[in-house]
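Quick one: structure for this chain?
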Amino acid sequence: RLDRAPARGSRGGRGGRLLDLHQRQQFDFLLQNATERFVARMEERCRGADAALARLRDDSEAARTSLGDFVAALFLDFLLDNIDGACFVLRSLPRRSIELQRPALQRAGTTEEAMVALARGMFGELLLARALEALEQRAGYQPV
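Got it. Here's what it folds into:
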């Protein structure tokens, strides 16, 4: 039948292997946990949601460095700083576009370093979008 979903572990529409449900759940937990931690960290450092939101939106080198450092530490904490962890993250983001001119990719030497750099960068972009959403909600509901 054409309306059936592919079997677990089979190849998806673009030839990529689909995530098992427990892997999807693990990634969702990772992203939610990372977003909560990053938002709390930014609110604490910037003394409030409005200031944190402004800092992340200004696209400064300091904001990008803070995000990059956070993602690198998160990958270490969750044991994703290796090729298997990078593949897990990349398989979780199959429809996101890749910018191959990333500075981190140009500095990477081995395949593992390139994959980890790509996974960190893509996860960081998604984390930034989620953090901005969370901070916008918090800023909108702060007492006057």
